[in-house]
């Protein structure tokens, strides 16, 4: 818990993202500015002012980063090349998900997938799927880029192949506010607005266990290498619980691990 480094920021932070290796941090403000900082030296590598407000920004691998803006555009920036690749979305963007070679942009009415080859930094649009004018609340990409998940505001969750072909669809007990693949890519955990958690097979979307609930609403979920971590608030106390991987679950040990 010791402070390692204090870095003065040139902008007021609203969003923060680390690249996969942890060597760079990206800061976006409440309006149009974005900076990339080298953590080792504390120096600002890039400072970019967008023509319109930034909706979301994320790293794509270690050396590229992407931003979606209210001017209905996607920009993919390279750490060396000054000018970004720019794609017109023709709709208001709501969510951005990134992996090394896959990038997804959700808008009010669709989700568009972009991909690049292993030996190239150039991105191409590969597919677009309609979402029936129900804004996508969350999207997640499989850690090995084999599939992806979309969670819509109407409560519909859809599992897709990496090329945009639907594999399965399912509903939880409310719209999803958080979703994650497990580190090994075998499981999907979703947290709904009701504070309950569902765990599914990442290949089929089949439910793998009873609905998980705490004594108070669950507000955070995350996978580490061996467990599903659940967190929530109980008045002035924050609690954390850990469950082993789903293949070890039984009804008795699920009940004993609930808070």
Secondary-structure blueprint:
Blueprint: E1 15-18, E2 24-28, E3 33-38, E4 44-49, E5 54-60, E6 64-69, E7 73-78, E8 85-88, E9 93-98, E10 102-107, E11 110-115, E12 124-130, E13 136-141, E14 147-152, E15 156-161, E16 166-171, E17 176-181, E18 187-192, E19 197-201, E20 218-223, E21 227-234, E22 237-244, H1 251-257
What does this structure look like?
This protein is mainly beta and 259 residues long. Helices cover 3% and strands 51% of the residues. It contains one helix and 22 strands. The strands form six sheets. It has a four-stranded antiparallel β-sheet with strand order 1-2-3-4, with no helix packed on it. Strands 5-6-7-8 form a four-stranded antiparallel β-sheet, with no helix packed on it. The two termini are 26 Å apart.
Helix content: under 10%
What structural category arises from helix and sheet content? mainly beta
Radius of gyration: 19 Å
Shape: globular
- Sketch the topology as an H/E string, one letter per element: EEEEEEEEEEEEEEEEEEEEEEH
Total strand segments: 22
Average pLDDT across residues?
A: 86
Contiguous uncertain segments of 5+ residues? 250-259
Please report which band the strand proportion falls in: under 5%, 5-15%, 15-25%, 25-35%, 35-45% or over 45%.
over 45%
The end-to-end distance, rounded to whole angstroms, is 26 Å
Sheet having the most strands: 4 strands, antiparallel
SS element count, helices: 1
Widest sheet: strand ordering: 1-2-3-4
